[in-house]
Write a structure and sequence with these properties.
Number of strands: 0
Helix content: 55-70%
Structural class: mainly alpha
Order of helices and strands: HHHHHHHHH
């Protein structure tokens, strides 16, 4: 497929500038080489001759300030890595507790009353969106300390179809 695209690019400029009879010859050559129909070859040649428009997507400005995102990351870490739904619901309690214990003080470490109001206004989905990078960098993975015990398996008796029924 890449060879076909390369051949098409090669013939595209010549096809665009050619006369009607020359275009027919170019189409014949392209169809012979690629195995395409004339209609398909013509469409691809005209598409390859036209430069593709560069589409610039507008990026929206962030709804919340940089300070709010940084404080959100600290609150998330202090909460033990809760998901966005739980964090959104427990945000007022967490902020109050962190302020009470001196972890967040207005005027220090990017925390202010405006940042607090932004954090309280965040939805669960927005919290998850803003924490994607932080969660991937600081993934919380614990080690499980439970192991399957052979003692448990040996103490439970399993009856099979051929076993005798115990006397009542």
């Amino acid at each position: 497929m890449s060879a076909r695209a390369e051949i098409t690019r090669k013939y595209a400029l010549a096809y665009k500038q050619a006369t009607r009879s020359d275009k027919s010859t170019i189409l014949d050559q392209l169809c012979e080489v690629t195995g395409w129909s004339r209609d398909n070859a013509r469409r691809r040649l005209t598409a390859a001759a036209e430069p593709r428009p560069v589409v610039k997507r507008k990026t929206r400005a962030g709804e919340y300030s940089y300070d709010a995102v940084k404080v959100l990351q600290r609150v998330w870490a202090a909460s033990g890595g809760q998901c966005g739904k739980y964090l959104a619901e427990s945000m007022p309690v967490l902020l109050e507790a962190l302020q009470t214990h001196g972890e967040l003080a207005p005027g220090t470490q990017r925390f202010s009353d405006m940042v607090r109001s932004e954090l309280l206004a965040m939805s669960a989905a927005t919290i998850d969106r803003y924490l994607v990078a932080t969660k991937s960098r600081n993934a919380l993975h614990g080690l499980s300390t439970t192991t399957p015990s052979p003692l448990l398996r040996s103490t439970i008796q399993i009856r099979k179809a051929g076993d005798e029924v115990e006397a009542v």
